[in-house]
Every structure is written in structure tokens, then in C-alpha cells.
């Protein structure tokens, strides 16, 4: 019997081809929202494949403890996901300047996010880096909205 997972999230640590009925294909690094559990199987969805719910083995997923997650890292992750869609659009539309500009900002955010996740910083360094990340996100949002309106 499937049991509700109460808003658990995880990350695929192995590729899984969905080799069973109702299987959800996953690639390494895919985030998954876990909806239900049944023994060694999980049922959930992957934001990369909206509206597709499927099952996958528990052993292929690293379940994340959201109680321990840093809200700045979470926000940074969400912003990078949103910006990646814009970045792809710029690539497809061959808008080289916008593509390069957004790439630079995204790489900077990725580096900062990596440092925060590394947990090797002192409290003061972490706070300072968190403030820089928030500032970059705010600046990037303002700049991309200005750039979008300027180039229309």
C-alpha cells in the first residue's frame, strides 16, 4: 500500500530508464518531488517533465532534508532554474549578447552556491556570501528585466 511522503524531495544519483510499467525516467542530477512511498519504490514527479508522475527505485535517489537546507541556497537554485529557461531562449533566438551576459551571471551564482553548499566557510563568511548572492539575484533580475525591455 502506498504511503504519503509528506513533501519529500530528492536528487537522482543514478540514471534510471524507467524500465517498468509507470516508470519515471531519471537522469543523474534530476530533482524529484516524492509523493508516495512503498517499500523500496517511490512515486513522484520531476520538474523537468511536468505532469508526468511515475515510480522509481529508492536506491537511485538521495532524499534531501529540507529542514536543514539554507533558504538562500534554495532561492539561488530556483532562480538558476528560472534563468536557465531564459538562457536557452536567448541561445535559440541567437541573441548572443543576452546569452553571454546571462551566462556570466549564472556561472557566478553557481560558484557562490557551490561555496555555500560546501559548508567550509565560517559563519561570518557564510553571511557575507549569502548577502552577495541575494544582491546578485536582485541585480540579475533587475538587469534582465531592463535588458528585455531595452531589446524589444
From TrEMBL:
<dbReference type="InterPro" id="IPR001452">
    <property type="entry name" value="SH3_domain"/>
</dbReference>
<dbReference type="InterPro" id="IPR032376">
    <property type="entry name" value="DOCK_N"/>
</dbReference>
<dbReference type="GO" id="GO:0005085">
    <property type="term" value="F:guanyl-nucleotide exchange factor activity"/>
</dbReference>
<keyword id="KW-0728">SH3 domain</keyword>
<dbReference type="InterPro" id="IPR042455">
    <property type="entry name" value="DOCK_N_sub1"/>
</dbReference>
<dbReference type="Pfam" id="PF07653">
    <property type="entry name" value="SH3_2"/>
</dbReference>
<dbReference type="GO" id="GO:0031267">
    <property type="term" value="F:small GTPase binding"/>
</dbReference>
<dbReference type="InterPro" id="IPR026791">
    <property type="entry name" value="DOCK"/>
</dbReference>
<dbReference type="GO" id="GO:0007264">
    <property type="term" value="P:small GTPase-mediated signal transduction"/>
</dbReference>
<protein>
    <submittedName>
        <fullName>Dedicator of cytokinesis protein 3</fullName>
    </submittedName>
</protein>
<dbReference type="GO" id="GO:0005886">
    <property type="term" value="C:plasma membrane"/>
</dbReference>
<feature type="domain" description="SH3">
    <location>
        <begin position="5"/>
        <end position="66"/>
    </location>
</feature>
<dbReference type="Pfam" id="PF16172">
    <property type="entry name" value="DOCK_N"/>
</dbReference>
<dbReference type="InterPro" id="IPR036028">
    <property type="entry name" value="SH3-like_dom_sf"/>
</dbReference>
<dbReference type="GO" id="GO:0005737">
    <property type="term" value="C:cytoplasm"/>
</dbReference>
Amino acid at each position: 500500500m502506498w504511503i504519503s511522503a509528506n513533501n519529500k524531495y530528492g536528487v537522482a544519483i543514478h540514471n534510471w530508464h524507467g524500465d517498468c510499467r509507470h516508470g519515471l525516467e531519471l537522469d543523474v542530477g534530476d530533482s524529484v518531488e516524492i509523493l508516495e512511498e512503498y517499500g523500496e519504490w517511490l512515486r513522484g514527479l520531476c520538474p523537468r517533465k511536468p505532469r508526468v508522475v511515475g515510480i522509481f527505485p529508492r536506491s537511485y535517489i538521495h532524499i534531501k532534508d529540507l529542514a536543514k537546507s539554507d533558504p538562500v541556497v534554495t532561492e539561488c537554485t530556483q532562480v538558476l532554474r528560472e534563468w536557465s529557461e531564459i538562457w536557452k531562449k536567448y541561445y535559440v533566438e541567437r541573441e548572443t549578447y543576452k546569452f553571454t551576459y546571462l551566462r556570466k551571471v549564472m556561472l557566478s551564482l553557481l560558484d557562490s552556491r557551490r561555496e555555500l553548499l560546501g559548508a567550509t566557510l565560517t559563519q561570518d563568511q557564510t553571511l557575507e556570501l549569502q548577502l552577495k548572492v541575494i544582491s546578485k539575484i536582485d541585480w540579475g533580475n533587475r538587469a534582465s528585466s531592463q535588458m528585455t525591455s531595452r531589446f524589444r
